[in-house]
């Protein structure tokens, strides 16, 4: 996938933002990551690959189960995200983990070289989802290799993530999202998700919903976190005059009014889906 200079700069900004908001995201998705690792069920000596790892929080949870003798390879398309994951691993004193920059549609890794693959919120973001699923199937051992993948549920069930976008569409700042284009809700339809995975020759053994809960001390914290963690929102705001940014923020906050507590804190429900698939 080719990347423009502007996109590279934005990924650098977002990588820094993810590090600042790591605790917020980790709290919201902790139960999801725990469930993914539970379903992967790593055992000593296995090799596990994490794709689109971001800061690596999900993959790191496998390390206890992999020892002794196991190995985790944490990868992401963005070098800035890989660097963030390396810093996090160093801070936690983790070993038996290596890192690499990998395009999940063109993995440089050997055939049947991993016992398991984890991918949290990555598959729906690549232009060629089928190629990515093929690559996952290719690098898994046969038979019995296991992939555990997570995607977001529908946009309607994830208001924390969609409030700013809804406001931008309402103000005519952006077009309504193309549901077939790379984006967080592209695989929200469970049948489409299963179809993409199955087309790669993997056998879908489980598809389940997992709830997440986003929490912020205030609307201000939600807005700042959204700006930090969203490349799309960050690039949009960079081109808007200050008065339009204020209007966008106010309208976006209005979509979250029902989740505000009396003290101004925010608790917003969300929904993800996990699919488990194995090599025949």
Could you name the CATH topology? Rossmann fold
CATH superfamily: Vaccinia Virus protein VP39
User: Helices and strands, in N-to-C order?
Assistant: HHEHHEHEEHEHHEHHHE
- Portion of residues within helices: 40-55%
Sheet bearing the most strands, described? Answer: 7 strands, mixed
Computed Rg: 19 Å
Mean pLDDT: 92
What's the SSE blueprint?
Layout: H1 5-20, H2 22-40, E1 47-51, H3 57-60, H4 63-66, E2 71-76, H5 79-92, E3 97-101, E4 116-120, H6 129-139, E5 146-152, H7 159-170, H8 190-199, E6 203-216, H9 219-229, H10 231-238, H11 242-254, E7 266-278
Parallel strand pairs: 1-2, 1-4, 2-3, 4-5
Antiparallel strand pairs: 5-7, 6-7
Describe this structure in words.
By secondary structure, the protein is α/β, with parallel strands linked by helices. The protein has helices spanning 5-20, 22-40, 57-60, 63-66, 79-92, 129-139, 159-170, 190-199, 219-229, 231-238, 242-254, and strands at 47-51, 71-76, 97-101, 116-120, 146-152, 203-216, 266-278. The chain has a single domain, classed as Rossmann fold (3-Layer(aba) Sandwich), CATH 3.40.50. The protein contains eleven helices and seven strands. The protein has a seven-stranded mixed beta sheet. Strand 4, helix 6 (129-139) and strand 5 form a beta-alpha-beta unit. 41% of the residues are buried.
